[in-house]
Design goal:
Elements: H1 2-5, E1 8-9, E2 12-14, E3 26-29, E4 36-37, E5 40-41, H2 45-53, E6 58-63, H3 70-79, E7 89-91, H4 92-102, E8 107-110, E9 129-132, H5 141-153, E10 158-161, E11 167-170, E12 173-176, H6 179-189, E13 194-195, H7 201-212, E14 226-230, H8 233-242, E15 246-250, E16 269-271, H9 274-283
Parallel strand pairs: 3-6, 3-14, 6-7, 8-9, 9-10, 10-13, 14-15, 15-16
Antiparallel strand pairs: 1-2, 2-16, 4-5, 11-12
Length: 288
């Protein structure tokens, strides 16, 4: 049954769907595990990006990275050999800042020192909300207890998850992401976290608006012209498909054997790397 849904062709697993009728004009790329790993380019990725750029109108690097501000993500990609323009990084950390400012919240931030740069102009005294990212130095008993007390002190308090990922790929292996700590606070307080990063469909739609320039309530988003390329089957691939766009799963980064079968519907393709993803899109005529 699985092989019928996902016939294996060459080095990639492919599934042709009706969404293929639209050519790809925009690309969303995950950063860690797709373009770079441990700050180093995944072989062939920068050349693949250059080829992809020549075939699409715009690219965006979208990331659930919650330990570094956009400026650091951009600098890391550039140092690894990628051309990344100003404004091309679309991060969950910045989405969390937007959520907080829009609602005039005063967050207790369980964030790394570097990530706090994104919140430098956000009032944080007498907090009525908690923002959780991946911050190893913050995730100890007393700090989590402080966060729990903030959430229990006010019925209208907000628990905001920059992401709810289970783990991410480091150079030395898998490491805990923010999701486990968010789940602990949910359990302790009875609150449900608002997830502002992937796989939230609003996050994807905001990235689509940013890349395509299609904004306003009456404007139809060109979702069929977008492809998301990622290594996380839930946050990247399933999230993008739920938002209405195409998605390709790459076997670099956090991918584990059989991940593709965790999707409720098959991705457009499962390939070895970003370079193979770009080759695939050209081979099947989805890129000009």
């Amino acid at each position: 049954m699985r092989s019928a849904c996902l016939p294996r062709v060459g080095r990639c697993v492919r599934c042709f769907a009706s969404t293929q009728r639209n050519r790809i004009r925009y690309a969303l790329l995950d950063v860690d595990g797709v373009c770079i790993l441990g700050g180093v380019e995944i072989p062939g990725s920068s050349q693949a990006l250059a080829r992809l750029r020549s075939s699409v109108r715009a690219c965006r690097f979208i990331t659930n990275q919650s330990q570094e501000p956009c400026s650091m993500v951009q600098a890391k990609l550039r140092s690894a050999g990628f051309h990344v323009g100003d404004g091309e990084i679309f991060s969950a950390l910045r989405a969390a800042r937007h959520f907080v400012r829009q609602r005039q919240l005063r967050p207790l931030c369980l964030l790394s020192t570097a990530a706090l740069e994104e919140f430098h102009d956000v009032p944080q005294r007498e907090p009525n909300a908690v923002v959780v990212g991946t911050a190893p130095e913050q995730m100890h008993y007393e700090r989590l207890t402080e966060a729990m007390r903030v959430l229990l002190a006010n019925e209208d308090s907000h628990l905001i998850a920059v992401n709810k990922g289970r783990y991410f790929q480091r150079s030395d292996g898998l490491a805990l992401q923010a999701g486990g700590f968010v789940a602990a606070l949910e359990y302790a307080t009875g609150k449900t976290a608002t997830v502002v990063g992937k796989p939230d469909w609003e996050f994807f739609h905001s990235a689509v608006e940013d890349a395509s320039g299609a904004t306003g309530p009456a404007v139809e988003l060109p979702l069929g012209e977008f492809v998301m390329i990622g290594d996380d089957v839930i946050d990247d691939v399933q999230g993008a498909m739920n938002a209405g766009m195409k998605a390709i799963l790459v076997k670099t980064g956090k991918y584990r054997t059989g991940d593709e079968f965790r999707c409720s519907t098959p991705p457009l393709a499962v390939v070895d790397s970003l370079a193979d993803a770009v080759h695939f899109l050209h081979d099947v005529g989805l890129l000009e």
